[in-house]
Amino acid sequence: MRHPVLSGLLLSAALGCAKKPPPTPPAPEPAPDDPADATARDRAYWLKALRTGNPAARQEAADELAVWVETDPPTVPAVLELLKDRSTSGAGKILPARVNSAREGAALALSRGGPKGEAALKERGLAILRDGLTDADPAVREHTAHTLGRLGPLARPVAADIQTLCTDKSPAVRSAAFAALREVGGADPVALADLVAGDDPAAAWSAAALIAAGDPVPDTAVPKLAAGLANEDPRVRAAVAAALATAGPRAAAAAGPLADAVKAVPAYRGKYDPESHYRMGAEEAYWVALTRIGGPAVPAVAGLLGHENALVRRFAAEALGAIGPPAKPAAAALKGLLADEHGFVALEAACALCRVGDGTADAVGYVRRLIDAPDAAAQAGIEAIPRMGEAGKPLVPVALGKLGGDNPHARFAAAGLVGVLPVEEGAKHAAALGKLATDAERDIRLRAGQVLEKLGPAGGAAAAALAAAVPKEADPAARDQFVDALIAMGPAARPGIAVLLPVVADRTASGDRRLRAIAAVAAADPGSKEVSAALLGAAAAPEAWVRGAAAAALVTLDPVPPEALAAVVAMANTDKATEARVAALRALAAAGPKAKPVRAEVEKIAGGKYPEFALPAKVALAAMDGDVGKAAADVRSGLGDKNGQVRAAAAASLVLVGPAAADLPGLQKLLRDPAADTRAAAAACIGRLGPAGKEAVPGLVRLLDDKEGAVRAAAAAALGEVGPAAREAVGKLRELRGDPQAGRAAVKALEKLGVPE
């Protein structure tokens, strides 16, 4: 629908007191078409707004013009013309999440303007922007590169032109070019490798990091990359190692230089100091690269087994174990380390011997003796079992026998061991973990709760014990952990319902815990009147997000009480918060045919004048008919709607409809949407794509720094679902583990990426 902005303003100016003649209205600004045409005047209004210096106004104009691009043919050439606008906010002044120039706003309007907008970009727009990359003004070059980066894969045809700016004289331009290439893709790794070997440390680091985040390094780039290991900057050396890791065995020639880079790490110089507190940093990339090179790297890694620093000996043994059978030539040296003065080195050597397949008996005997130790050595031995591979399996029953033993170190480690067993095996020990909920040692109680939470429904045998322990637990962290474990048990948490119900109404509980408790009580006892009453109470809570969560839980009750459906549909109709109304409609969609009794009321919403509610209502109606896919076309159309609330509803609905690989480019755009709900929903959809969502990894990594916790959590979860292609996110995910809102998702993502805690 058009917005007669100028017409409205003129009409207002013409109204006034009858006793005083109205002022003469100002002449309307000339419009590109007939000045009497309201559409032309409104088009001119939005085009002018795109040229304003106010980022918020530019954002609004870009959103509005995206719709005009699809529906108003004259808008397309006008917006294309704005791509030539050279105005910027100055060198080094890029605002990543805001529209920072008319050129950027015009590009975004076209990219979000559906097939017509994308076609215009490809046919004419990219060529105009390509010219901006060679502008005499460095600020223009910088802002043009940034604009192309915001287009993502749409701008891939000009990736080579962007890459030429990686050697620009201006540091700000170079930085913008590298950042754009990460979003656009299509960089030439061989040319980037030339930069790695150059004299500019910042460019060398950026180039190596870009190579590491892309496809496996081609053979011709390996020698140039390897030369970067001699760079004086440790950040560059680490980035080079990460890039070489993508080449695997083809980087064999770099094994020696990688080992030399290990020796140059400051923390590894001199003998190991037991009083020091070492934490692995960027040097981890060296060990990863050597491991990925595999067999050809064995001589270089084996040479590090004799290093004077115990940390190096330990990590070298671990790398050889990860290489596996090809590392058998190093078995003799590994056996020698079983007598190392530092127990952690000897233990890692034992694990490595098991994995390379030589000296297994000696290694297993060494670990077996540790398990029976009366002190902390038992903990080290038990925690090593998973790293021993098949050879360590006979030791599992021995270790689990320590769950009820006298050594607290062994009890602690045995509880942790349950958490790394296959779920069906771990379930057999859930009752024993429940007994540890009253252990004298606080850390053991906490560990038991953590493992039970990880087991989820499989840990149900401990539900009663946890429920009994909660009111007696004096430590707040352990008490909260028991509650979290009960929540994770879902249907198996029925014995703990009395503990969980108060959490549903507890406004002092963390948002994450309260939301999960709402879902958990519905799953644990879906036929309970007490649960139904608690959820109905939550549906009237002051917080919109609680009301929305309650709606989602109410429709899972079995059977769904009439009063529950009435509450949910009332929320969808009259709640004061858009967030809650949309959540209620999503709940009705999730309910499917069970929501048919309120179909007539949902039909009214679907036919209403508010598209942000009409769209999810249509999805709910399709779900009631048993085929949510019938709403797919409307949902996908809504992803590019000018209304931010519609985009948010569409992205959330796509999770129900089922995203496809073809949706990825549109979802990548939504990762930059101004609305947090939209960004979070887009990330969730990408996560549903699994490995097919790998092109979105840079955008998801960026969202790990989002100001909204829900967005950070959604991005972390999506990265875990993408799988190995998201390995570049490991460092950021580790930093996120302590995040109160996204920490849980980060930990789970790291587990899915195969990264140990």
Named at the architecture level, the CATH assignment of the domain at 5-186 is: Alpha Horseshoe
CATH class (first level) name of the domain at 5-186? Mainly Alpha
Radius of gyration: 30 Å
- The proportion of strand residues reads under 5%
Oligomer: single chain
Helix content: 55-70%
Structural class based on helices, strands and sheet pairing: mainly alpha
Gross morphology is flat
Helix count equals 44
Low-confidence stretches: 1-36
CATH topology of the domain at 5-186: Leucine-rich Repeat Variant
Q: Please report the distance between the alpha carbons of the first and last residues.
A: 53 Å
Quick summary of this structure?
Helices cover 61% and strands 0% of the residues. The chain has 757 residues and is an all-alpha fold.
